[in-house]
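Hey, resending since the last one bounced:
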Amino acid sequence: MTEHVEVRRHIGAPIDRVWARYVDHARWSEWAGTPGSKLVVRGTPDENGVGSVRQFAGYVREAVTEFETPARLAYRVTRGMPFRGHEGEVTFAVTDDGTDVVWRCHFDPIIPGTGAALRRLVTGTFTRALAGLAKDLEPRPPSGA
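The structure tokens again:
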């Protein structure tokens, strides 16, 4: 059975900054909580664009399949997870006070009966990553305020 995940996050920063930070695959370890993030294959026309492959934790790989600056990135997991057919997209929309980000995916668990647990795992991963992105980009109040 196909599982679906959707996580939404408002980030109080301009869309161009949010997009640039999100698509810099080599620097995800700085904000997303994904150790060992790196770009293993360069894409086109941007190095993080279509055809690029990002790697996390030394074994999970994702290939970028669509890259629409600064509004949408689509990808598919190619290795390292206990499911097949994982395809995802992240969309970015301008708001009056920043950027709304929506991260969606769907996948089929390899082991029957593990769908709910995998859905919780993926939802938590997306939620933590977007919280880290917001923390990295949103202005911080002056100390003592």
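The beta strands are 3-11, 38-41, 53-56, 60-68, 72-79, 83-95, 98-109.

Sorry for the duplicate.
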